[in-house]
Amino acid sequence: MREHVFTLTRSQRENLWRSYKQTADRRVAERLHAILLLDEGRSATDVSAILHLHPKTLKRWIQLFASSGVDALCTFHYVGNTTSLTAAQLQQLTTWLDERVRSTKEVIAWVDEQFGLDYTESGMLKLLKRLDYRYKKPAQVPSKADPDAQAAWLTSYTEKRGP
């Protein structure tokens, strides 16, 4: 890899540093950090080792930054899968979910029955998370004990076991 590809002006460096410090996305921060380290005069090999990056990844980031600037470096073009349900179907699903607590398997069965769409458990969990539903483990509630039945069992148990 070529060692010194570009030099940042003081204002560019300050803006890049500010963006690096303020970003919440670790992937963006890692890319900006790489550019800042290179501007400090570190070699591409050193930066790859410091950030635990493959040299080709760093080379790609350098080329992207040199050709298109910071905005291109901070942009990701990944688009996840879209849901198979329409907006009206999603509204119907949320209304149904709000009636009472449901299990994921119940939701999968209901969606299959209502709309004819087959979801996996992991796919449904992701959809529910996007709809802002959260998994909540039910708390154990002790059942109401019958004191007479407990006394009868204790008596029979001690008779069988002996004194």
Tell me the series of helices and strands, N- to C-terminal. HHHHHHHHH
Uncertain spans = none
How many alpha or pi helices? 9
Q: Judging from the principal axes of the Cα atoms, what is the shape?
A: elongated
Q: What class, by secondary structure content?
A: mainly alpha
- The end-to-end distance, rounded to whole angstroms, is 85 Å
Largest sheet: none
- Whole-number mean pLDDT: 87
Percent in helix = 55-70%
Q: What is the count of β-strands?
A: 0
Share in β-strands: under 5%
Can you summarize this structure?
The chain has 163 residues and is mainly α.
Topology:
Blueprint: H1 10-22, H2 26-39, H3 44-51, H4 55-68, H5 70-73, H6 87-99, H7 104-115, H8 121-130, H9 147-161
Helix pairs in contact: 1-2, 2-3
Describe this structure in words.
The chain has 163 residues and is mainly α. Helix content is 63%, strand content 0%. Helix 1 packs antiparallel against helix 2 (26-39) and helix 2 runs antiparallel to helix 3. The protein is elongated and about 90 Å long. It starts with 9 loop residues before the first helix and ends with a helix. The model has no long low-confidence stretch (mean pLDDT 87).
